[in-house]
Amino acid sequence: MQFMSLIMTVFPEWILTHGAASVVVVPLMFAVLTALNPNAKIAWATVLAVTALCVFTSLGLLLQVASHGPIHYNMGGWVPPLGIGYYVDGLNAPILLLISVVAFLCTIYALPSVAAEVEPKKKGPFYAAFLISFAGLLGMVVTADAFNVFVFLEVSSISTYVLVGMGASRDRRALTSSFNYLIMGSIGATFFVVGIGFLYMQTGTLNMMDIARVLQDIGPNDRVVQLAFAFIVIGLGLKLAMFPLHMWLPGAYAYAPSFFTAFLAATATKAALYLLLRFTFTVFDPSWDFVTTALMILLAGLGILGMLAASLQAIFQNDLRRVLAYSSVAQVGYMLLGIGMATTLGLTAGYLHMINHAMMKGALFIAAGAFWYRFGITQVCDMRGLGKTMPWTMAGFTLAGISLIGVPGTAGFVSKLTLVRAAAENGWWWAIGVIVVTSILAIVYIGRIIEQAYFQPVPEIDGKPVVRNEAPYTMLIPLWIMALSALAFGINAEWTTSLAEAAAHVLDAGPNTIIPGAHDVVPSVIGGH
Amino acid sequence: MSELFEHFNFAVVIVLMMVGLYVVFASNNMIKKLVGLSVFQTSVFLLYISMSNVDGGQPPIIAEEDLHVAEGGGHDVVADGVAEGAHQAAEVLYSNPLPHVLILTAIVVGVATLAIGLALVVRIREVYGTIEEDEIDALDYEINLEGAAE
Amino acid sequence: MTPQLALILIMLIPAIAAVFIPLAGRWQNVRESVSIIAAISLLAVVIWLVCYVGESPDNRPELFLIQFAGSFELKLKLEPLGAIFAAIASSLWLVNTVFTIGYMRGNKEKNQTRFYTCVAIAISAVMGIASAANLITLFVFYEILTLSTFPLVTHKGDAKAKKGGRIYLLVLMATSLGLLLPAVMGTHVLAGTTDFQVGGIFPDGFSTTAAGILLFLFAFGIGKAALMPIHPWLPNAMVAPTPVSALLHAVAVVKAGVFTMLKVTVYIFGPDLMSKTPASTVLVWVAAISIVLASIIALRKDNLKARLAYSTISQLAYITLGAMLATSFAVIGGGIQIVMHAWGKITLFMCAGAIYTVAHRTEISSLNGLGRTMPWVFGAFLVGSLSIIGIPPMGGSWPKFFLMAGALDAGQKFLLAALILSSILNVAYLVPVAMRGFLLPPDSPKSDAHVAKILSQHRFVRFAPVFTAAGAFVLFFAIGPLVEYLKPILPVNMTGGL
Lengths: 529, 150, 498
Fold this sequence. Notes:
The structure holds 3 protein chains of 3 kinds.
Chain A: H1 2-8, H2 13-36, H3 40-68, E1 71-74, E2 85-88, H4 93-117, H5 123-142, H6 146-165, H7 173-203, H8 208-218, H9 223-239, H10 248-255, H11 258-283, H12 289-315, H13 320-341, H14 344-375, H15 386-389, H16 391-405, H17 411-426, H18 429-455, E3 460-461, E4 464-465, H19 473-491, H20 494-508
Antiparallel strand pairs in A: 1-2, 3-4
Helix pairs in contact in A: 1-3, 2-3, 2-5, 3-4, 3-5, 4-5, 4-11, 4-14, 4-19, 5-6, 5-11, 6-7, 7-8, 7-9, 7-10, 9-11, 10-11, 10-13, 11-13, 11-14, 12-13, 12-18, 13-14, 13-17, 13-18, 14-16, 14-17, 14-19, 14-20, 16-18, 16-19, 17-18, 17-19
Chain B: H1 2-6, H2 8-26, H3 30-52, H4 98-128, H5 133-148
Helix pairs in contact in B: 2-3, 3-4
Chain C: H1 3-23, H2 28-55, E1 62-68, E2 72-77, H3 80-107, H4 112-130, H5 135-153, H6 159-191, H7 208-221, H8 233-236, H9 242-276, H10 278-299, H11 304-325, H12 328-359, H13 370-373, H14 375-389, H15 397-409, H16 413-439, H17 445-454, H18 459-475, H19 479-486
Antiparallel strand pairs in C: 1-2
Helix pairs in contact in C: 1-2, 1-4, 2-3, 3-4, 3-9, 3-12, 3-18, 4-5, 4-9, 5-6, 5-9, 6-7, 7-9, 7-10, 9-11, 9-12, 10-11, 10-16, 11-12, 11-15, 12-14, 12-15, 12-18, 14-16, 14-18, 15-16
């Protein structure tokens, strides 16, 4: 505690009071400014500064939550449930930090990457759209108003459609992938808003805590509430690429600009998963029958299917980014399995895997982008000899890859082991079998890539072997930061595990109905004398 | 049966939603998909708006002398929470304006989505020369085969 | 010399050697003496530890290394089986270094510095495996062993070497990550710990189905034990130079595998649980089939090293057999086989290396009459063969007797047939080699004469196998102390009758 209060003195006052809002407002403001700015370098610098600021702010928020408890922030001073409230607690503070850190690292990576992949005149607007997407994701995570979630969901999604489509200069399939994503994403968001509508119908309020309070009175037998839950789960399920609603993901990840794929892969599904957790455990009551059934059968079941099906598909892809994309779907399956168990250990495992996966996948996609940047490589069979021609990049890729497999000493092993222990505790032996099988499948698809890179001879152009051409430092540094953190959090997982456990405790506490400052009775007086 | 007629707004919503979804899934043409998406989103707008109507409710514009409690929502349980702070003699029933506000937001979102979608379609037309999905798949067949084959 | 210091030293000495060897790289004799000095000092410390551990069942030196990922600890604890394994590894490192010097210089091999460095790292990893206190520590050192021996396997650098190295790495990493690691994790989850304890760590009444599944995962996950069908890496690793085959694939790598197998069955499952689990019977038969099948394949190989490789697979399966039978005689027999087979097989491989260095011949059919020109080498080969076949008064006879007694104890009479058949096959594929050398007339007397002339230049490679052959003979008489030494690894109620 002392240590934390010491750290807190570093942070200026405004972070502690307005931090929750500034993580959203600052990127949005600067997005507008960046869009107007024609100079790409200034745009990049702005993004870097904004993401750095957000890292700083979210760190401050995390520390504050750790020492003082949840933060309730009322936007504009209006008290919920009339006003829109922002709420930071142990569940979403780590995710804020995660998104900000990943954005920051990817922005460092963006300097050469975007220059190579996006047309010069469009780089300014590209960065602006990125800031909007960034703000949207952060907003999704930090808000406590259900409809606000939808708004930010759409804000981040629409900018994502644009950004994915910008990959067209590299591969024209980015356009169709973006269109596909647009259609599916909009349907998902609309399902979500239908769910919110049904909730509003029954409870008359949009604030998550207030909804939880009224739902407690309504009870589990109301058909409309059950319907609302179903729509919300499906809507969010599409966003987090729950099998079989994952069809948009491989295309979007594969053909988007590599900087954006690295960011997206590490953050978008995590934010949606957070929302699923928030709604399922703290708005709806997890002790209700239909919620428990949905968790165990739907989430865990689809999680298992996703793990198996996506891992198998990953093996048969030849495009490197598609391999990693299907791997992401499988990893989301792991997280859903942990969540579906609904025990403390299971939730800890799922949450921990969220954090670890972000680091691993970010590193993998950064490396994949670096391979394209230097050699134009997109297919696995073209990766022959990369161990010699790009040793550092490949080493970073290998480190993240073995973390994905789950070798002891890496973060992936810690979260997999926690998942196994949670499954054992629950008596779900078949789940352990599936985890073992998918780990072997992961060995196959990562092993293929490593084998190509290290054991195949370097390709020859005009009879001469290709010379070594390492990725630039601005690419290597974020790659190695992420890869090394995957290693570091595997050797000493105390901090990440404590974050995950705090999150699990929040979820265990059940529906959260506390709105400080609100009247006991729903305030419905407008004016009044 | 009377239930259906009493809640015919939901029937309309369901019909429009299904039509919209069907058009999205069954269309080959990208513009038609966007049209279906719009229809689908419109059905949701109707859901919200129809939900906000109160039987016998007035448009939610407060006249100076009627600073009363405004409550509404088709199935609002919260209607119970009529505040005791109201010490006006007569009580005026208003329709709920909040869902309208929400829908304004959602309409904007829908417009933005449509705009992006159309922009994408324009670009796809430039790049591929067609906006029919099967033709695009055929054009991409070779490169997709290379990417997915072992 | 405290026990803890000794434990630290056995890990450190080879590691320090691995640092100094590259430093001394340019001066060949300095570099070689680093290896030799390290080997001698390691042997001294190991002998001290062996004596210390043997004094009393409570003398079990422990050392805590590091804790990671929450509940995982890397720690060391030496017990009799590990002490024996460390003893043969360190003693044969010394002998093999002498042999290697002769081989490397005789064949003018390249990259010798890299070679000696990797051997030192591998020996350090072997010491870690021998003294591991729990499965996690053993797993970590097991993987380090795989990775450090990979450059040794691909030493020659040509396409065949790389291909062999790839299969080596692929099979070992796939089995260890895909099967062994889940088994270790499963043990951790089900038993709450992975620490080795006499009698096993699973609670009473532990489900035999779960135990069976875990046992299968272990048996096929411990790829270094080369239980069929996980054996392909061994013949493929024969592309390595003979010193590698001798030390690593007769002594260190494969023994690490079967040592792990023994430790798992004795200290993790415990003989009690093993006898109750039906899966162990299935694995007994898998091991028996491996023994016979590998011997049959060995018969058909003309390449000497390939024949010895399949012989190794067969002999290793003896140890697996003993581990799976889990009676007192069987387990002790397995432990003794580790010792006897190491000394016997290294003799055979070193002879093969000597033949290659001096006469440049690798195929058995080309060895006619060479025994008359290289009597010491072929004599050592014959003695080593007798030990492998299991004929008294060679050390290798004891494990066979013990295993047969263990099979009878477990009620598996048909196993006796398998063991006897295997011995007959051993005769069939080993004895002809030496017989060809001595009894048949040479194919090309001129090349044999040339060999005779250069013999004196290759003393190291010729006399190292003689030394180990003598060792195999001497070990015959050491059976009493060996059995006594190994008794504490079994739970107290089992050691009657030994």
